[in-house]
Amino acid sequence: MLIPIHPKDPQPRLIKQVADTLREGGIVIYPTDTIYGLGCDIFQTKAIERIAWIKKIDPKKAQFSFVCADLSHLSDFAKQISNSTFRLLKEYLPGPYTFILEASKQVPKILHSKKNTVGIRVPDNKITQALIRELGHPILSTTLPGELVEEYTDPEIIHEHYQNLVDIVIDGGIGGMIPSTIIDCTGAENVLVRKGLGEWEE
After folding, report:
1. CA angle 115, 44, 128 (to 5 degrees)
2. Contact 5, 126 (CB under 8 A)
3. 12 band by pLDDT with thresholds 50, 70 and 90
4. What is d(CA 4, CA 78) in angstroms, rounded to the nearest whole number?
5. Which NCBIfam families match (predicted)?
6. In sequence order, what are the residues at sequence separation of 6 or more whose Cβ sits closer than 8 angstroms to the Cβ of residue 83?
7. What secondary structure does DSSP assign to 110-148, as a single string?
8. CA–CA separation, 95 vs 93, rounded Å?
9. Cα–Cα distance between 65 and 74 in angstroms, integer?
10. Residues 95, 53, 139, 159: what is their CA dihedral angle, to the nearest 10 degrees?
11. Strand 191-194 with 37-41, pairing
12. Rounded to 5 degrees, what angle do the CA atoms 7, 144, 62 make?
């Protein structure tokens, strides 16, 4: 199902429809402030397994992120962070960044890896933020499979490719082609893991 949602003024009725689908274990493709993402409710184990199957990866080895509306869920899913790390997150988020932090015990068991880390993302995108607020907790998110990012900018083309694999594709306009910048904050120094859309000076 392809659902057009207004990127600047998301329709509450449509946002609720997508959130209800997530609550019921559905998978959605949705816009962010970078590329379109593949997401589900973080507490729906079968949906996480479906996403892992689509990407042909083990959930414990996957590079999933928790997409939040703001930093209010931080203490739920990440271990206590230093004041300097919190200031860093406040400075850069919302924005095109993923920050890797140590995972708390509240992270669903299916996602526990040897590293036991969690990627936290707060996209600067009104549709995503409205959806997460309606859902009441973060969305588990990952990139679409494959290397051809060009195919993943137009929601109609995305829908053609994935309509039989996902429940909803949100049309929030043409997406970007550059993913988020990933910063690992689990060590003594912050480490740039991937240079993406967000500016970062080491």
Report:
1. 85
2. no
3. very high
4. 33
5. L-threonylcarbamoyladenylate synthase (TIGR00057)
6. none
7. GG--SS-EEEEE--S-HHHHHHHHHHTSPEEEEEPSSS-
8. 5
9. 12
10. 70
11. unpaired
12. 120
Spatial distance between the Cα atoms of 29 and 155, rounded to a whole number of angstroms: 9
Collapsed DSSP state (helix, strand, coil) of residue 37: strand
Q: What is the pLDDT of residues 79-134, one digit of tens each?
A: 888 999 999 999 999 999 999 999 888 787 777 666 688 999 999 999 999 999 99
The whole model's pTM is what? 0.93
Q: Which residues contact 164 (CB under 8 A, 6 or more apart)?
A: none
72 dihedral zone (left: phi>0; alpha: psi -120 to 50; beta) = alpha
**Amino acid found at 107:** V
Whole-number pLDDT of residue 61: 76
- In this structure, what token pair is assigned to residue 46? 């079968």
Q: How far apart are CA 98 and CA 184, in angstroms?
A: 8
- Supply angle C-alpha 38, 97, 14, rounded to 5: 40
DSSP summary character for residue 103: B
